Amino acid sequence: MNFEMPNFALAMPEMFVLGMACLILLVDLFLNERSRVVTYLLSQATLVGAFILTLSLYTPVRELTFSGTFVLDPMASVLKMAVYAVVFVMFLYTRSYLQARQMFTGEFYTLALFGVLGMMVMISAHSFLTLYLGLELLSLSMYAMVALQRDNRVASEAAMKYFLLGAMASAMLLYGMSMLYGVTGSLDLGEISRAIDEGEIERMLLVFGLVFMLVGVAFKLGAVPFHMWVPDVYHGAPTAVTQFISTAPKIAAFALLIRLLVDGLGGLQSEWHDILVLLAILSISVGNIIAIAQTNIKRMLAYSGIAHAGFLILGVLSGTAEGYAAGMFYVIVYAVMGLAGFGMVLLMSRAGFEADSLEDYKGLNQRNPWFALMVLFIMFSMAGVPPFIGFWAKLAVLQAVVASGLIWLAVLAVIFSVIGAFYYLRVIKLMYFDAPADEARIEPGRELAAVFSGNALVILAMGLFPGALMAICIQAFAL
Amino acid sequence: MMLTAVFAGFVLAALAPWLTARLGGRVGWLFALLPAAIFVWLAGYIPAIAAGESFYYHYPWIPGLDINLTFLLDGLSLLFGLLISGIGTFIMIYAGKYLDGHQYQGRFFLFLLAFMASMLGLVLSSNLIALFVFWELTSITSYMLIGFNHEDEKSRKSAQQGLYVTVGGGLALMTGLVTLAMVGGSYELVELLGSSEVVQEHALYLPILLLILLGTFTKSAQVPFHFWLPNAMAAPTPVSAYLHSATMVKAGVYLMARLHPTLGGTDTWMIVLGLFGAATMFTGSLMAIRSSGLKSVLAYSTVMALGTLTMLLGVGTPTAIAAAVTFLLAHSLYKGALFMTAGNITHETGHKDFRDVGGLRREMPVSTLFGGLAALSLAGILPFFGFIGKELMFEAVLEANTIGTLITLLALASGIMTVAAAAIVGLRPWFGVRKPTKHTPHDPPLAQLLGPGVLASLGLLLGLLPFIAERSVLSAAALAIAGEPVELKLSLWHGFNLPLLMSAISLLVGLTIYWKWDTVRELLQARRFIDTLGAERGYDAIMRALVVVSEWQTRVLQNGHLRYYILTTVMTLFALLAYTILTRYPVWPGVDFSGIELQHLVIAVLIVLAALVAVSTHSRLGAVATLGAVGFGVALMYVMFSAPDVGITQVLVETLTVILLVLVLFRLPGFLDLTEHSTRLRDAIVAVLMGGVFTLLLLMAIDVQFFPSISEYFIEHSYPSAHGRNIVNVILVDFRTLDTLGEIFVLALAAVGVYAMIKLRAEDRKEGDRP
Amino acid sequence: MESLMAIVVGILYATALYMMLRRSIIKLVIGLILLSNAANLLIFTAGGMTPAAPPLVPEGMLQPEGLVADPLTQALILTAIVISFGVLAFAVVLIHRAYEVVKQDDMDMMKDTDR
Question: Which end of chain C is more exposed for a tag (fewer CB within 10 A), N or C?
């Protein structure tokens, strides 16, 4: 190890986002209600700029810098770009919602950008410390965002629960990390991986450290039985925040999973495999079954997200490059669908009214056939029906699981997906075959309507041409 | 060309609402041009395919997953392709008139055309995944078509049921296909068709078979999933005629036929398909004469036909396959004609039940003719094509060995009831006493007569000249199903033999049943238990059970109590650790209390005592004070064990914490003793368990031989490279700058979060002050 | 010595968890503080306890003499202490705010998010 100058260029996007977030924080102080739109535009420009920077830094190889604590590889580039895109769309979606609820503030955007920064650090982390720092940066932003709406009893409560459980999970993660550090003497993922491969280390302690870390990661992913915060927070948080929490951070959580388990503890695959199987089964079964009883669509989507997290884990547990690629594909697809899912709630809401009850979707077809068709796309996609993108995600994961010889697991996952199909299809039934309970016209702003339609159409278009994204994901693990 | 043929339907579908709005009902004729063109184009392949050739087309789609748009045109896909496009042509024309002026006619055509294109894609695909995509597309589009009359409560329920059953089956099918591809080594049908040995000897053969059959059985309405099909008959008649007779429901049969060379021929295949098919056949025909609705009789007779086809594929002998292709063609022809005729009756008279119509032959002579011809074919009367199919079917079941007797009996019974059903359909509306009707009936216009006319006449023509069908497509189709050439020997007259006798018996007994139909039907309907046999009750029960389980789980797992969440998390962690210790590393760490100096012991005891007091005290101030004691004790530990910097930081932070607590704590109410004694005991046990685990783990960690830490590196290089004598500080500000920078960010962010919350609250206050 | 510390850490964890399982919101905060102390001490113990040999390089030397305590663990704990304080401050404000909005310090009454 020498004191060479770190290659700052590799972390350009991170530095850019950081600088811009600070700038926005400052600029916002001098803005009033009317000119607040500057904050919004600056935030969007930050994301676009970061996207361009990341794209221009794309290399097909793996590069380390900052004494090996920071890594840039194709997976990192792709996931980061996915994060920018998802957050960009989220900003588009939520603008009018925030304006109508006095939440169109600089805090929302700065916190979101800090969250993005946290995700970026997580995605590019190559050391336990950077991983942990990224995670905390993200988590703190999210806790604060949940609590952002003043006087909202439910949101305050949700924020508190989220925070306390999250802090506990972070503590466990940190504890696991310190155990691993204790055994291997390093915090660097590469070093740890090497130490494990050399095989002279007490495996038992490694495994205990692993268990603790898995608990922490499972919490962040929202996998059962560490999922309890998910429905409460998704439900309690303002829908705009829910849309954020439910999409982009999942991408980062996937990166966390890969960095920890594959890059760092790949040598312990036989040990984490069993635990992941358990988490996946529990998530898919509990998520899908509980979703049926929900009457609140945000809660329903929360449970659906839990089930999707289970599928994502399924992809990773196969332990093959195809499986990781499938998991990556799944998480990106899930983010796109999650955007649309909560976008649908934003679309139907209006000032003073949150359309978060299933009842609100009754007879949507009569009220607005176009939106009904879009929601139909989203629901079919989430249920995993072709030709929508959700199908390919499920297919890729199932392929990986079957290829690793776990047919029974694939069958189990499918059985619960069938059960899961029930609640998605119920939404469709409500829209198309029930009489409207609410005759109020749906009048989303033009921007919101366009984003929503675009989002749903992307779900269809990606379903028709999934090849490109799939190729990118496979490429990311082809190293 | 292939791509165009398959996707033209989707393109036209997208234009359909616009075109319909422009042209009204006449648009049916325009839309019919597409299937007609496809029919002609496919027909051009007949000579080559009859000569034993097959055609393969390859278009890249998702190379990364080894999934491409590949198409296989051989006898089987040609037969289905011709049926879909041929019948589709007449359905388009028919629907244009039948739904003329309906407010959603444009949307109707949209889904109908999309459905047709999906169906074509399904039967032409060679890639299993592409096939599956089209398969599910047919489910979705048919769902939209079934639920078309959504004012009707029954229609809604059945649409959901049909969709749920088929989508569920579809997901099972997907797993089956993926597994099959893994075992067989390819997603391409053309390659799988040659790998039957590999697949059938593989340990996963049975799961593959069952998963795929789950998909095909749900799609093709086999017992016990047959209930959704008759319920789906709430759809407009053109839909019933198209989806539920000629095409969609046969998709399952198609896939079984398609995979017959790969999966078929084993005992399991034979028994599962034979038994379920026969049971479906029997159930369908029994339910047909038990019902009286125009469409439900036809629907159940379709269930009968689907059962027959499945059974024949299960038997799998050359005769059975010959019977299957013949029966398939015959059924599509007469059932399409009958559905359209039934639609005409409803359209003209306003009645939907066989009990309400009669003696219409004078007003609707042409319809009578066509309906009668089709019914004769259904009954399997001599010279109609249906007769040939039925004879072959009897011959095939007589040959079947393992389960021959049982399925022969069932075949005879359902043959009898089919004759009765045919008589109901073919005689009841037209002959006998003229019953009063809501509207004055006439023969419908050409658009609504063309389909029944052509299809019914073809049934007669092919019966008289069976070699036309045989030489053009049926032989080639049988070849594709069997995987080897099959001689069909289609002819009307096979001499006096057992099948002919069975036909005669079924004709006589069937007509007797028809004669006494009202009595028989009431007798059957009085047997309520038949309703309870179907899986529909099972479906309802499962749905109810799911909701109950779901609500129960919500109550247990999602009770909203934070402390239960914590409890669950901790207990799960505990279980995972216990599992690992017990299964993998049953070791006990050594404990070493030597070398403890007195001052260390005193501090340790102090920490423990302070913590215990903090837990049990009822005074807030006491708790804060003891907490401080814990913190300072820990700080002392750091200092004593060579970590002065850490100790100093700890003291600073501890002081700040105490100040913070004192500031905030006293804005909150005092301690509450809320929980009951038993709860506290439980929590204490959990806490002690957890604490024990941590102690245990830590002891294990200490036991481990120490590693050559990279700390050595820091120790060595601290001064030479970084010019710092305090190694900890050097690490923080030099070696690990990035981490420290990150730490600062985290703190800054926490500050931003705190600030945001406080600021918002302050703003609240300001607003609150205003009246 | 390490064995003794292991027991102390275990007890701290037990008390922390017990407090976190209480219904009173303040007890929860106390639990959190105990938890962070327990965690830091745990890392410290796991890193090995070396009495009276701080990781300092004496004047005029390039490397410390003999065995010194592991500096990396100490750096880690230092980071952990500071971060846990930040987090604690955050928690206290959040909880205080939740209390102000909800007007309830019995956690069992805070289950509005579940209906």
Answer: C
Q: Where are the domains of chain C?
A: 2-50+70-111
Q: What fold is seen in the domain C2-50+70-111?
A: Helix Hairpins (1.10.287)
Is residue A457, in this structure, part of any structural domain at all?
A: yes
In the predicted structure, residue B376 carries a pLDDT above the cut 50: yes
Per-position DSSP letters for A146-212, written without gaps between them: HTTSTT-HHHHHHHHHHHHHHHHHHHHHHHHHHHHHHHHS--BHHHHHHHHHHT-S-HHHHHHHHHH
Give the pLDDT score at B585. Answer: 64
Interface confidence (ipTM) of the complex = 0.87
Query: Roughly how many angstroms between the first and final C-alpha of chain A, as a whole number?
Result: 24
Torsion of CA B256, B262, B263, B265, to 10 degrees: 100
Which residue in C29, C37, C59 has the most chain B C-beta atoms within 10 A of its own C-beta, making it the best mutation to test that interface? C37
Q: Which of A208, A398, A425 sits opposite B160 (nearest CB)?
A: A425
The minimum CA-CA distance between C39 and chain B, rounded to whole Å, is 10
Q: How far is B618 from chain C (nearest CA, A)?
A: 10
Measured CA distances, B529 to A129, B524, B533, C102 (Å): 68, 10, 7, 57
Q: In C, which residues are within 8 Å of B561 by CB distance? A: 107-108, 111
Tally of structural domains, chain A: 1
List of chain A residues whose C-beta atoms are within 8 Å of the C-beta of residue B745: 18, 114, 117, 133, 137
Top residue of B175, B547, B587, B733 to mutate, by most chain A CBs within 10 Å, is B175
Alpha carbon distance, N-terminus to C-terminus of chain C: 51
3-state SS class at A415: helix
Specify if A1 maps to a domain.
no
Domain containing A219 equals 8-476
pLDDT digits (tens, 9 = 90+) for A324-370: 999 999 999 999 999 999 999 998 887 677 778 888 888 888 788 88
Tell me whether strands B67-73 and B55-62 are parallel, antiparallel or unpaired.
Answer: antiparallel
Residue B478 in tokens: 């049988």
Amino acid in position B396: A
d(CA B509, CA B419): 8
CB contact under 8 A, B641 and C49: yes
Would you place residue B147 in the very low, low, confident or very high pLDDT band (cuts 50, 70, 90)? low
- A125-172 pLDDT, tens digit each: 998 888 988 998 899 899 889 888 767 778 888 888 888 888 888 878
